Every structure is written in structure tokens, then in C-alpha cells.
């Protein structure tokens, strides 16, 4: 009998050890849109992380546009329904995604939020938040603009999706810094809904309506690209000081040719890489930080070819 009990105990321990080693399953990475170089760079980081994780698979998806919030909600709910092992989510709206994240929490599925904050009402339902400190990033962009245009005159803000968590911090930090450190008059913000063509048209109209404009800020990738193209088409490139945000090939070209004086580049690859690694740690019951700043680099013509910039450009 004792031999049987010892054998049963050994079998139980072996099963438990096997289960611990077999931790794995699907990681669902869900972002604001799949149609952006920025989010595709997040995907590259996520792919790198999953490639080094045995027993795990990854799915990556996002709506057609950042304003298709209901589609993103459905993607999270579908991930919960198919009982994924963990979710990495960049919420397109701070409030609308809370109920879906709550469903994941109720299903005991760990959630890591990246890029943009979830509303305070949802903080209890996710375990870690990895992002750029958008307020700090906005302040750095404002400082870069003031350094180049001075403390008086008129500047414009070309923003993206009103109410998005990253937009609130980024544009809010930009405006607060201008108010505290200059007498610059602000035109806007104008909201492109992260559509490049919309940003191009809005910037063109703003330049026409404000011939005395000294500076302009494009607050995310598609908005900054549209802004840069409008500056080129209007003949204002290099004459109106422009600060962009993010670092795709178009924006790198604008920095190199002087259309942009600078662009603030987030660690998008790091968000994907660390997002997947963090959710795997949660699945495996390892401790993770509640908040983690993935950083920002102000890229200019002077440093664009140096490692500090190359490590974040895409």
C-alpha cells in the first residue's frame, strides 16, 4: 500500500511538473490598426519575443482604422471566447475597451496594455502597462519647437484621434509645456483620425489660413506624414518649423531633407517585444511591473545616423 501511495505521489508530482513546463498557448496581440508602419513595428517586436518562447503561438490583428473601435472590442471579446493564454492590447479608446478587458479578467486571462492607457475604471482588470510616457514626450516636442521658433508667435497642432489615451497625454503635455514656457499662440488642435490624407488637407488649410505660422506639430505617424507632405506641396518645407512624431521611412526622409526639424520616436518594437514577454511572465506566475516606460528619442538630422536613433527607427 505504501509503495502504491509513493508511486501515486510521484505520478502526481510528475504531472504537476509537466503542467508547469507545458505553460503555453496562444498570445493574442491586438493593436489599434494593422495598417500602419508603427503597429507593424510592434508586430516585429512581438514576433521576436514569441520566437524565443517555447510552447507559445501568437496571433496579431487590428482594425482597418484606429477609429474602428467596435471592431477592436470584438477582437478582444473573440480572443476571450477562444480562451487564449494571454492578451497584449493597445486600446484605441480608453473607455470602450474596459468591458472587454474585464471579460478577460473574469476568464482569468492575463492582459498587458501597451501604448495607450485604459481608463482608471479598468486598471484592476489588467496586470501591466507598457508605454511611452506620452506627457513627457509631448513636453519634449514642445521644448524642441520652442528652441527653434522662440517664445512668441503662432504655432499649430495637428493631432489624431480625440480622446485616445496617448493623444490626451501627448498633446496635453505639449500644450501645457508651451503655456508654461512661452507666449506662443496655438492654432488647433485639428484631428486627422490618423488618416494621412486628412492630415495633409488639414495642414494645407491651416497653412493657407495662417501665413504667419512659425511652427507646427504632427502628433502621430500618419498625421506627421500628411503634415510633411503638405509642407512640401505648399513650398513651406524648412520655412515653417515642423516637429513630427514616430519614425517610419517617410518621416526619416523628412528629417534628412529638412522638412521636419525633428521627430519624436517611440520604442514601438520594444512595446511588442516586452508586451509578449511580460504576458508570458504573467502566464507563468512571475512578477511583472505594473507600469513601464518604453522611452522616446528626439531624432534630428544630427543624430539620425547614430545608434541612439537607429535603435528606434523603423
TrEMBL record:
GO cellular component terms attached to this protein's record: cell envelope
Annotated compartments: Cell envelope
Main location: other
UniProt-listed SUPFAM superfamilies: Periplasmic binding protein-like I (SSF53822)
Keywords: Signal
InterPro entries per the UniProt record, alphabetical: Peripla_BP_I, SBP_2_dom
Protein name per the record: D-allose-binding periplasmic protein
Organism name: Paraburkholderia fynbosensis
A GO molecular-function descriptor: carbohydrate binding
